Amino acid sequence: MFEEEIKMRKICLLGILFIFISLISAGSFAGAGVLSEKVKDHSASKAIGNETEATGNNTVFVVKNYGDDQPIVTQSPGEVVGGDPSEGITYHDQQHNCSVGHQIAVDDNGGVHVSWMWADNVEINPREVHYCYRNSNGNWGNYTPVDPAYRSGYTTLDIKSSGAAAVAYHFNIGGSNTQTKVAQDQFPGFGAFQPTSVDVVSYPSETIIWPKIAIGTGDIAHIVSENNPDGDVMASVYYGQSNTDNYLANGFTHWEMIQQGQRRQRLISYAVDASKTGQKVVRAFLWGPDDSNSSGEIYHQIRNDAYVQISTDGGQSWGETTALTEYNVSDSNHDYDLSDYTTEVDYDGEEEFTYFWEAGHTIEAHVDAEDRVHVIWTQLMQGVIDGGADPDTIGYPVMVGGIFHWDDDRQTVDVVYDDWSNNPLELWDIDDAETSTSAQMAARLGAFKTTVCAPTMAHDTNNNLFVVFTKFFPDDYCALVEGYQDGNYANGKMFNGEIMAIASVDNGASWFSNAGQGEAVNLTNSNSRDCEPGECDDDRYPTVAKRVVNDQLHILYINDKAPGRYYSTAAEEGPGTANPVLYLPVHIEDVANFDNIEDDTDPIAEKSTFLAQNHPNPFAASTTIQYELSSESIVELAVYNQTGQLVKTLVQGYQPAGSHYLSWNGMNDVGEAVVAGVYFYQLKSDDRTETKKMILLK
């Protein structure tokens, strides 16, 4: 009798569980409406979660009420996470300090998992990591705090093979040491998280926080995190992995401190990814020299290079640390060889500064469907006083540059997106003489921001690549408000961001979109120039799911209503506002028309003869050009100016198949130095002609 009763109870429990799962699948936890299967007009998604819809000047916008706050007007597309404007918000607009990582993932059934750093008041207290799930029918449900605490945040997310999410974050309970934690959901989309700490034994005196997570083969979780040192001390990066696929029961390995020679982490710029089918794991970093000036001050966020480490055995051992850039080579005396990356440009009318390139602020690692490793990073200009390279001088930022790419197959550096033009730093004196220098203009982008920033990467089943990032335009900034950002020269005219995307069909060798070759498409188109704080559309911190599912990019971003970071009343660049957390699905054909490429008689995806982007670009002393020949050919490679006049013939004659490299030093055919400006280099071979642009600085 007793055994029969136990059996009946089990049957009842299984029945309840089945009903619960069915309700989720059927969309009973309804929230937002469903976007069209293929979003061609992003305005179709603007009515999600709205209370009032209005139309003016052919623009659809939505007024959203957030509790007792004033209604918020947004022209930015997307669904409010959770479908409820009172839930899918945050006052903590700065989701990450530098590298973003991934806060969104899509399972095989089309379910969308997101996590973000939530706060519902200007005091940012409490601050929690929240999770929400959107089922394949487009309905939101199971909105929940991942691990309720006094302070938790800076979250990233990935999913296991079962479709259950695992969320990494830092955690603090009123005065206790902050630590890295990972919480795994018990079932796909349930929001029933089981948190566990990641190694609090190996470095008990260190506060190791700000984690990035990637789940690889066997559902092993790989974590890269950084310590938060006291005072003006260099930080270090640490790596750990789960012992099994059950993180709660079996925990994580001890932290491994990652360090190469004298180079240590300067800012929170690192990334990790892992193959879902093989044993490759990649971790990438921005590192700078471990030095200080004569006053003992540590350099931060300057002179960085990009590095990568690859494991082929699931993270048990690692290959050599490979420098992807060599912007700043130093010896024991800190005598920096800036070489090709140094130039005395008059970009903002201040000739006393010498500018040089560096890898700046953000880096992303990615393993594609064919287990190829990709790394992308942002490049920016840095400056030193009086034209010198003395390490005692102070860095002077010019936050303009671009996004660059490397993969472990071709092992070359290619330009993803060049932002040398049409960026805010062209407008030094924009309506205000106090904003006439590049440092003051850079401050108007916000901390840890460049004119293009926060790139993350995705791939589809055809191994096409996509990069989603933030870009700032010169004509999109908030209204003049005195004291908006005291001491940082901005006077309220902080720039609003837009979410951009660009694609590659040749493993990163070249990039394009519907906007053109080398151009990115604007996904948000939410210019809100002269907006008042609280009514702006500053779209930033985009994070894209690693996999394209249902031919869509799945993007999560913050629609900041007052540009400039805000994470406490004591640390702000703008006023605190309730900012929508938006989910934006974008059909890949809205980014790039792949049908035209596939129907081409000479499709890019199949070309083995190609011309790579020169590097560095822009450049001062010299630049390297690489090209690949599919077969032996008569080749001509030449440089032309903007009027089409021949400047320099670099190659003319027969060459065998394979990779070829050469340099151009800015001289013409008669040995004279040419003027600074835009130049074009063109490759002609037996089977094709290709042209690319480069910029020479003086």
Q: Features of this protein?
A:
single chain, 698 residues, mainly beta, Immunoglobulin-like, five-stranded antiparallel sheet, 5 helices, disordered N terminus
How is this structure best described in words?
It is a single chain. With about 700 residues, this protein is mainly β. It has a domain at about 610-695: Immunoglobulin-like, CATH 2.60.40.1930. The chain is about 5% helix and about 40% strand. The protein is built from 5 helices and 44 strands.
Taking pLDDT < 50 over at least 5 consecutive residues as the criterion, the unreliable ranges are 1-72, 292-296, 329-353, 385-395, 428-436, 485-491, 598-607
Mean pLDDT: 76
> Would you identify the CATH architecture of the domain at 608-696?
Sandwich
| Cα shape | globular
Structural category is mainly beta
How much of the residues is beta strand, in percent?
35-45%
**Cα-to-Cα separation, first versus last residue:** 92 Å
Main sheet attributes: strand count, strand direction, barrel closure: 5 strands, antiparallel
